[in-house]
Amino acid sequence: DCLKSISCLCYLSNLSMFFFFTGINKGSKGRRLQCLIWLHFIPACILPEVHYHNSLRSKRGWMWNQFFLLEEYTGNDNQYVGKLHSNMDRGDGNVKYILTGEGVGSLFLIDENSGDIHATKRLDREERAIYTLHAKVVDKRTNETLEADTEFNIKIHDINDNEPKFSKDLYFASVPEMSDVGTSVIQVTATDADDQTYGNSAKLVYSILQGQPYFSVDSDNGTIRTALPNMDRETKENYQVVIQAKDMAGQMGGLSGTTTVSITLSDENDSPPRFANHTFRLSTLESAEVGAAIGRIKANDADVGRNAEMQYSIVDRDGQDMFTIISDQNTQEGVIRVKKQLDYEKQRTYSFKVEVTNTYLDPRFMYSPNPPFKDDAMVRVTIEDVDEPPVFSRNPYIIEVHEDTAAGSFVGVVSARDPDADNNSVKYSIDRHTDLERLFNIDSVNGTITTLKGLDREMSKWHNISVVATEISNPRQTTRVPVFIKVLDVNDNAPEFAMYYETFVCENVQSGQLIQTISAVDTDEPLVGHKFVFSISSSNPNFTIVDNEDNTARILTRRAGFSRREMNTYLLPVVISDNDYPIQSSTSTLTVNVCACDSRGNMQSCNTEALLSAGLSTGALVAILLCVIILLMIVVLFAALRRQQRKKEPLIISKEDVRDNVVSYNDEGGGEEDTQAFDIGTLRNPEVMDANKLRRDIIPEMLFPFQRTSPIKDNADVREFIHGRLYENDSDPTAPPYDSLATYAYEGSGSLAESLSSLESGCVEGDQEYDYLSNWGPPFKKLADMYIGKDTARET
């Protein structure tokens, strides 16, 4: 149970390095543990072997904490780590040392006979700082464990092999101009990969290499601060500051790293606006419209952005009345505009002062020793003369005229003048687009307006015309002015009924009963309002009128009892008068119908026909009915006779008067194109008729007449046409239900008669041969005799 601790101190090359070794020796069965640690800073430094032995203990064993090894070994041989030794090893070669754990075989090797441990590669503490291994001792012959498996560490000692590094090569920062000394700008920090807990390898010190005397840096934390007061952005805006971080607490031999910080002075409103010129000269035409820009002025401000925004103002009363100035936010210029209409003849020059200030002021600089934060300049505006159009004395004109004035009457006068110094003469005219009815005329010299026609207020109360004034010397200079002519009322219209009244009176009405309330209207407009008086003839025995004194009147019955049989309608003339001057009156007729009413006075019937039917007797009604029936029978009989007369009689009644009968047809045919009602083709080519159809008025000359072959038989197109027409007739729902016969014949090259048209004939009527008519059959015998006989007589 004996514990011993040994501490070894080694001082090499002015470096304070402490190496601590602790050994615990436990005795068990007469065995003893020895541990040797070799620490190499240089080959000359070797710690002696240390033995731990306690012969009083019955149990023995070993235990150790860790080995130490320097990183970045530069020797050519394997780096010696340490030695494992057990008191069970008597040097006879029967003991075997076994090493297991991280990196064994690749990084670490052990001599199984001696227990020496070597590192085969250069180790970097920044990659790995500690390795954990296991060691035990066994008998080579029996493979019996002599020392139990024990864990130990190999710790890599740091050396200063890494320089400080900043996270960025270039930093950007800004600080307001005119800041106080010591104002923080930015903090830059570097990192060192060396061990911060051991020695000074990772202890950094910051310093400024470039940027003095404007800035400084805190050596401990890398904070950059301003070092000079009143740093002006307008003088210098950008600064490049180089910061260095050095390890080993800044001592000689330490490693270092640098970075660059770009510092910009941000703008503050510390510069007032200033005019480069304190006098501005502008000119404009007197015809410049109100609101038109006549020029720009500009002040300069060394500040930028929001701090450079300026506002302009006119401080003189002379300029404030005629001009205004606004700030252009894009160019920061002052735009001078016309506030009132300029007149060269009244004033030709204007001079006023313009003041400029910053829109946003910083109170910190308003009371600085610098000049005030505003400036002023004098502006002179010259007005140039132009040839101006005439100017009317008023705009617009309102003139009143009474209606019913005669043509040529005076209405009013308009006046215009040339505002220029020349004062040229002016002529007047009316724009006829505003006086389409040509009601007015104007004197071109003095501007007197007169009427061309009479005016009627009831047609139009106002007339709006435009009068044009034109300079005689320069007709392009014109001015228009509206003239509103109000037509004043004259009592020239009589009052009349306000509406059409449908008035009735009951047959059983009592005397003095109200049958209608009437009112009147007047298109005139008297100043004191309308006042109408209603009256009727006092000799009227049927009705009377009562004036209500409110422009209405009541119509009352003067007697009781009216009869529709005596008179069903009464025409009541009502005289209506106004009270204006001159008094106008009119007579309106009120139509009063006599109607049958019930006991309550509700109208039932005003129809006079009903009254007549009610007065006829039964016998009269029967007589009227019989007369109507007789008339109907006569009409039916007449219609039947007409129908019987329309039946056709035989074409030829007697054989003897064949030549003496003239058949007259009252029906007009449709021409050659009419194929629905008549078959003209039969007249053109009788030989194509059905030979079985014999004449009824003569005896056939042969029993079996000669049948000609129809030329249509071989004509396929005609056959298809006939079949098509047959199909149309059969499928036509509007066709008559009876059978009909349609004969089709065509003139031309396919017809026996060929073409009968005179358009293709090359001969005159005298050259024609009519012998072929005798071959057309009996129907054309009479025609053949007429033409053949005519030719024979001509030849004779």
From TrEMBL:
Pfam families: CADH_Y-type_LIR, Cadherin. Gene3D superfamilies: Cadherins (2.60.40.60), TCF3-CBD (Catenin binding domain) (4.10.900.10). GO terms for molecular function: beta-catenin binding; cadherin binding; calcium ion binding. InterPro entries: Cadherin, Cadherin-like_dom, Cadherin-like_sf, Cadherin_CS, Cadherin_Y-type_LIR, Catenin-bd_sf. Keywords: Calcium, Cell adhesion, Cell junction, Cell membrane, Cleavage on pair of basic residues, Glycoprotein, Membrane, Metal-binding, Repeat, Signal, Transmembrane, Transmembrane helix. GO terms for biological process: adherens junction organization; calcium-dependent cell-cell adhesion via plasma membrane cell adhesion molecules; cell migration; cell morphogenesis; cell-cell adhesion mediated by cadherin; cell-cell junction assembly; homophilic cell adhesion via plasma membrane adhesion molecules; morphogenesis of an epithelium. It is found in: Cell junction, Adherens junction; Cell membrane. CDD domains: Cadherin_repeat. PROSITE patterns: CADHERIN_1 (PS00232), CADHERIN_2 (PS50268). Cadherins are calcium-dependent cell adhesion proteins. They preferentially interact with themselves in a homophilic manner in connecting cells; cadherins may thus contribute to the sorting of heterogeneous cell types. This is Cadherin-6. It comes from Oncorhynchus mykiss (Rainbow trout).
